[in-house]
């Protein structure tokens, strides 16, 4: 084992070189780790490369880490000179062993800005560091900085394209940039998912995932809906992870905002209505109807109906997921908190848009009865854009509805088109259904924790939702 300063320096140089050569031999390394080994037993390198896994024997870490740390500090203090290649190798070794060393990341920022490193190489290094230290805050911060550089470069190339006018006309450069950003987005989602699996309640990973969507997928309903679908299995396997459910709550809020904004914009133009119909069909799986281009009013109304249907489908699916998980995994506070948040999102959205939905159903004359369990026109919007009930063409009559007189029951010619769309998703939850769910939990032979959470949820419904409609 090395003891003198000269022997330590030789050892460190050899280990740094072996790590660099390992990446050259296998550029597909996907995981790093420390191999428990108290002392060197063989006359061989402490760097072990097996398939796509890179390991460092633990006996050399106590020599390697302080040495490269001191070298980097001397360089920053301008007491020791290192060329760019040496800096890249030293910082790589240091960050694989201690990714929370901010100075090393700052040095790599400088190397990246001067062109000595590529953004993809830094993202790859951060990905490897996260396999050993999945919650490293400095690594996530550096990833966001690198992604910002990629976005700036992409926007700069799209604005100042040096290629010929023919290629600009074809949009080839724009397509390449979009493909690159799409690949980067997919890779970031994979990195965040792996880090969340390695460390429970990994707030840093989920926060980074939200940041990526905010900066690289703003307004893209398909991406947000795909994320909502892809994380469904993950949260089902991690029912105590608050961060994962908080991410789903963020996705729901963004989808509600995007669909509501798109519906509000479809007032006169058929073009915007077509865009909304495509978005809603992506979310709810509903085939958009075809209209005459001149009939903008009908297209706008159908756009609003599709938006309401898509949102109600999202709420219904999320509450259904909560129900299954609460019944399958009793006694988890995270599940009850998520159900409370989802229902409040539904309550808030219904409160903001009830007037618009009422006007589409009966001219705004019908009172709001959702707090008492009667969905009224909103239920009609959820079940059929023509206002159909579950039992037939006219559906069950709700208390307080006006009788159909003076030709009011004559069929609307637009309804014949809407009837061809098939069955639409069920409505969102109402207070009676929530109280019934809680009563079913309390009536069953549940454990004390499950009973406590159910009682707290019922109290929340009665104090927040009923008393503050």
UniProtKB/TrEMBL annotation:
Q: Where is the composition biased (Basic and acidic residues)?
A: 158-175
Q: Which residues form the signal peptide?
A: none
Q: Give UniProt keywords alphabetically.
A: Prenyltransferase, Repeat, Transferase
Matching entries from Pfam families are given as: PPTA
Please give the residue ranges the record annotates as the region Disordered: 156-175, 356-433
Tell me what this protein is called.
Answer: Protein prenyltransferase alpha subunit repeat containing 1
What PANTHER family has UniProt attached to this entry?
PROTEIN FARNESYLTRANSFERASE ALPHA SUBUNIT/RAB GERANYLGERANYL TRANSFERASE ALPHA SUBUNIT, PROTEIN PRENYLTRANSFERASE ALPHA SUBUNIT REPEAT-CONTAINING PROTEIN 1
Name the family the entry cites: Belongs to the protein prenyltransferase subunit alpha family.
Give the originating organism: Gasterosteus aculeatus aculeatus
Protein's UniProt keywords contain tRNA processing:
no
GO MF entry, a single one: protein prenyltransferase activity
Known InterPro entries for this protein? Answer: Prenyl_trans_a
Q: Name one GO cellular component term.
A: cytoplasm
